[in-house]
Design goal:
Chain lengths: 111, 115
């Protein structure tokens, strides 16, 4: 089966650091993506991990542990514009490598 | 500018009236896909296409049809829409050659309300 779990909602303060966790169980694994989605808008690509370890991209970093079926997205120096939903998605090895999405974590950044 | 374009952006219609949501991409991507997004359920794949004339069902294909006659276009067809198809729909595309880290590019979404 396929199952991706993320917290439903998180809150944080401007300037702080927040970590959004994602655990997954899929029939196949060919990489994990993080997307950002502002309300009513299209998801936009943030990061990709296929090997274990940390990938850093400016204020955003993403970590993967394949043996634990676990990833996190780390957001530093939070800004108000970071208030959005963050979607964890696993690229499966079936269905021509389809993306299986979690339900998303809504992050609210307050002043 | 590289983009995926969906039309219409918003549509309110009635049960049973056939409708088509168009999707076009200008990146020469082979892979295209349709998703619906519902509160608490996340993005779920409806249909996908690996190339012209090659389509297959995703996780929630019931009540939908697609076609891929040209590489750039991938319309979603609701032959007889019902209220449970009220949702936010996204079209996406990506390249399939090269590395598996090719991200999907999403259109701006189509909000459908079926009364």
């Amino acid at each position: 089966g396929q199952n991706i779990d993320q917290p439903t909602e998180m809150t944080a303060t401007e300037g702080a650091i927040v970590q959004i966790n994602c655990t997954y169980q899929t029939s196949g694994f060919n990489g994990l993506f993080w997307y950002q989605q502002h309300a009513g808008e299209a998801p936009t690509f943030l990061s990709y991990n296929v090997l274990d370890g940390l990938e850093e991209k400016g204020r955003f970093s993403s970590f993967l542990s394949r043996s634990k079926g676990y990833s996190y997205l780390l957001l530093k120096e939070l800004q108000m514009k970071d208030s959005a939903s963050y979607l964890c998605a696993v690229r499966d090895t079936t269905g021509f490598q389809k993306l299986v999405f979690g339900t998303g974590t809504r992050l609210l950044v307050s002043p | 500018e590289a983009q995926v374009t969906q039309n219409p952006r918003y549509l309110i219609t009635v049960t049973g009236k056939k409708l088509t949501v168009t999707c076009s991409q200008n990146m020469n991507h082979e892979y295209m896909s349709w998703y619906r997004q519902d509160p608490g359920l996340g993005l779920r794949q409806i249909y996908y296409s690996m190339n012209v004339e090659v389509t297959d069902k995703g996780d929630v294909p019931e009540g939908y049809k697609v076609s891929r006659k040209e590489k750039r276009n991938f319309p979603l067809i609701l032959e007889s829409p019902s209220p449970n198809q009220t949702s936010l729909y996204f079209c996406a595309s990506r390249a399939i050659g090269g590395y598996s880290n090719q991200p999907q590019h999403f259109g701006d979404g189509t909000r459908l309300s079926i009364l």
